[in-house]
Structures are given as structure tokens and as C-alpha cells.
Amino acid sequence: MDELRMVRTMLDRPAPDDAVVAKGRERLRTATRGRRRTMPARRTLWVTGGLGLTAATAAAAVAISTTGTTGTGGGGGGAGGPQAGRSTTRTLDARSILLAAATEADGQADGTGGYWHTTIVDRDTYRVADGGYTVVQQDQREQWTPSLPGRPQWSSNRSLGARPATAADTAAWQRAGSPATFKVKVPGKGLKPMTLSTKPGPTRVDRAPLDDGGHVFWLGRNVTMKDLRALPADPKRLKASLQRWYQGHGTESSSEPMSSDLWLYTVAKGLITEMPATPKVRGAAFRMLADLRAVRAIGQVKDARGRSGAAIAVTERTARAGTLEHRLIIDTAAGRALGEDIVLVKPGGFTTGFAPGSVWTSSTVVTQGWTASAPTKATGSQGGSGR
Amino acid sequence: MTGLADTRTAGRVSDADLAREYRSDPERFTAVYDRYFGDVHRYVAGRLDSQAADDIAAETFLVAFRKRERFDPARGALRPWLFGIATKLVAQHRRVESRHYETLARVRAAPDDHGHENQVVTAVAAAGLQPQLARALAALTRKERDVLLLVALADLSHEEVAQALRIPYGTVGSRLNRARKKLRTALEKEIDVNG
């Protein structure tokens, strides 16, 4: 007597019919089309395998092209008061920018609440298939991450629409008859073009329970809110605790090697821009970056929303997307990051066709802070003034 | 080149490659659906019945899509991961599941069925002993039932069950043994009584 086979026989049901399979597939398709960016967006997706998630805006590209070059020297620990980076035109070196931000962060009071709420606008650029011009797609994502496990995590996502990236792109778009939708190339072999619309999309509010471990963020490995809040506030110890998870490859794919500095930058960027680390830990993260050899200063730049900040950068040479410059834009006076731009220094691979020096993708922090509660099902922020 | 195309032409794309593809392009997640929907549906239908499975199996892939970043190809294949999600969803429908077993327990095999020699032995046995079997299944703890049915319905190996339920390998064996023993005891009692 084989009770396992008896159970199988008793519980055997016919395979689902085609209509059921098709209906389930359509439900999934609707979900996948709604989100080009991975939902719990803890990482920039493009890093290695991330085809199709790219961005730039005309405004950002113009702003960056007018910024001065790096002034090195200065050296040392000159934290140079919080105002220094803002009110003067003096170009700071990377170390000074980062130490100024760290000093500011150190002095801030720690807070906490029911949920850590962030609003971020992602901009991704695409080449229009057969159009010969570039468009920028903007997506706004909000997240409410519970401070305690046991509560769900909420998110609200909305497309803010796509539009031509630069004046030249606008002209090309107009010559094409100013279409309201764009068929854009999705980098990667065998991937079909994707359709973008100039119109903003609906807001989708989602909630999902945390996994069994209560993980909420990614710092080289998945961490809980408790893990995040318990990180060391000493830069050397912070670096050691993060670096334990570095395995010589990128944050997205185990098949692409990544330098230790770039890896640490990637992890620290997430911590600084999106996560509720204590202010002292944020300060330690800035200080850790200040000691990385690969990090250098870009100078004053405007982010995609037109806000000024001091940028530091790390260069990455990729096999598939050309040479990229990751720019962390820092508001030194606030001790915070405004966001990140990824600039195409030398397009290549699937970024061929984009203008060298243009911002390929960016993430901009619009708001962040603790809130008492998450949205209820019916609401969800309708916000989203993506200009 | 790191070849999406290469692996595709080479034949079956591995789960790790599938994961890489949908990380690049979320819409490729439908390939995961195409590969595993039938298996997941069969498993859920066995536990909750077909109608509920139509919805829950589809829901499994929506949840998987939302959590796709958490799937780590280094820790195991997609299939056990999906069954883990399906099992959690089934757990939210405990009433539906127990009603399903009650229904099965009430379906008495027609007396004629017993004597037919041309029937597969296990099928006859299952039919004849169905009330006992269904009741014994319902009487298992949820944890025992999860393990038993992931093996019986989903054909997962012990290691895969461990991955799916995130429990230690050894626990899979002990739960499965306990579950099988309980079923056997229930069935043996019945055989003793009926000769």
C-alpha cells in the first residue's frame, strides 16, 4: 500500500482548460506591463543585466553640460561648513563634499515612525524604434516600508508619461507627426519593442506582506529594518560590515565582475538615498565613500528636478552598455542625497545611438520621511506632479 | 556575449537564465508562467479543487512577480520557490481546503467498484478507502500536510520541499514520515475492520 500514490490519485484533478490558462496569463501580463522597474526598487536595475531601464531628461543633460570640472586638491578633512557647497561657486573635491554631508548628517536627530515613506521619480531614456530620436519615460514610485515586521509593505506606482528628451528630439518627434505613443527599443536580444505613452497612467496601489525573514531592504544582502538600524556608525566598521557580502561581482548578476569600490558605492548609494538608516550611519556612509579611491568630484550640478547639488561620481566600464558614470547628487547642507544620475560617457552595446554625455537614467528623491500610517486600500497617493 | 539568445537556441532555458531575463525585462516573467502554471494549478487544485485553483494558481504568479527580486537562483530553482508561494496562498484558504476533504470523504465509492479486476490497484484502493484517506489527510497538521502534498502532488524532492517551505532538510523527512504513518494507521484500521 503506497499512501502517497493513493493521495495523488484521490486528489488528481484535470489540467486547467485553455481559457483558464489564458486568463491567468493576461492577469500577469497586466501586472508586468505596469512596472518596467522592479517593484521593491531597492537597486538600480540596469547595473549589469538591466536592459531597458534607462533615463535622461533634457533639463538634466543641459545642466550637467554646463557644470565646471573637478577641482582636486584641498584634500584633508576640510568639512567646510554646510553652506559651503551651496552658496559659493567654489568647486569642492569629492572628499570635502562627502565630509560636509557627513558632518551635517551627524548632527541630525534620529526619528522613527510607523512607516518609512519615500517618493522617487525614475527617468529612463529610450530610443524610439524607427524614429531616430530619444524619449524619456518618467515613473513615480512611492513606498511605505513598515518599521516593524508583521505589517505589510505598501507601494504606489504611476507612470508620469514619456516625452522627447531634448529640443532636437522634440523636433524629430514633431516631424514624425507628434505621436502620442512611442514604440521604443528594449535593449537585449529578442526582446520586443515596448509602447510608451505621453499620457500619465493610473496610480496602482499595492500591498504585499514581508517575507518570513521580514526583509525590507537590500544592502548587498537582504536586511530587516532592525538590521538596517543596527549598522555601525563608524565608517571603517560600516565598510567591513557591508563588504562581507561582496563577492567580486555586480549587484544584479553574478556573471559580471564589479570592482569593490563600485560595489560599495552602489550599496552605499541605496543606503544614503532611500533607506532610513540613523543619521550617524548615513554620515558614516558618506565618510566611507570619501575614502574610496574610485570616487571623484564632478562639481555643482542640477538634478532632474532642477535642484542644485554637489555631485560625486564613480566610473563603470561595462561590456554591454558602454562606459557609465554614476553620479550621486548631494545636498551637503541637508546631509542627504538628492538622487542619482547615470551618464553615458561612452555609449556602446545597447546604449549605442544615445548621445555621449547624456543622462541615461536617473532616480530623484522627491520626499522621504517617517509617517504614522500607510495608505488604505482605496486611497493611495494621487500625487505625482512630474513636471 | 552573454547570450540570452545562445541559451535559448541551445534548448531549454535554465531557471537562472529565466530569472536573468525577467530582471532585464519584467515582461519576460510570463515565460515563468508558461513553464510552471500547469504544475502549480495541479497542486492547488488537488488541495482546494479546480475552481479555487483557477484563481489561486494565477495569484501565485502575481505574488511571485511582485517578489521576483527575492528569488535567488543560487539558492534553488524557480519551481520550489513558486510552490512555496502557492502553499502560503493555500494556507489562507484553510476552510476551502478542509471543505474539499470533507466532500471527498463523503463520496462513497459505488459498491461495484470493489470487485473490478481490471482497475489499477491503487485507484481501487483509493476509491474504496477514500473516506478514510480524506479524513486522515484533513486530520494532519498543516505543516505535515504541506510536506506530504508537495511530495505527492508536486513531485518535489526533499531538498526542494526544504527550499519551498524554508525549513531544514531533516525536518522534511521527519514531517513526511509522521504524515505517512498517520495515513497508514488510518487506512490499516479500515482494512482490519473490513478484512
TrEMBL record, chain A:
The keyword Nuclease does not apply. InterPro entries: CU044_5270-like. Residues 68-88, 141-174 are annotated as: Disordered. Residues 70-83 have a biased composition (Gly residues). Keywords: Membrane, Transmembrane, Transmembrane helix. Signal peptide: none annotated. Residues 162-174 have a biased composition (Low complexity). The chain crosses the membrane at residues 45-64. This is CU044_5270 family protein. It comes from Actinoallomurus spadix.
From TrEMBL, chain B:
Pfam families: Sigma70_r2, Sigma70_r4_2. InterPro entries: RNA_pol_sigma-70-like (IPR039425), RNA_pol_sigma-70_dom (IPR014284), RNA_pol_sigma70_r2 (IPR007627), RNA_pol_sigma70_r4_t2 (IPR013249), RNA_pol_sigma_r2 (IPR013325), RNA_pol_sigma_r3/r4-like (IPR013324), WH-like_DNA-bd_sf (IPR036388). Keywords: DNA-binding, Sigma factor, Transcription, Transcription regulation. Residues 33-99 form the RNA polymerase sigma-70 region domain. The keyword Glycoprotein does not apply. It comes from the Bacteria. Residues 132-183 form the RNA polymerase sigma factor 70 region 4 type domain. PANTHER family: RNA POLYMERASE ECF-TYPE SIGMA FACTO, RNA POLYMERASE SIGMA FACTOR HI_1459-RELATED. Belongs to the sigma-70 factor family. ECF subfamily. This is RNA polymerase sigma factor. It comes from Actinoallomurus spadix.
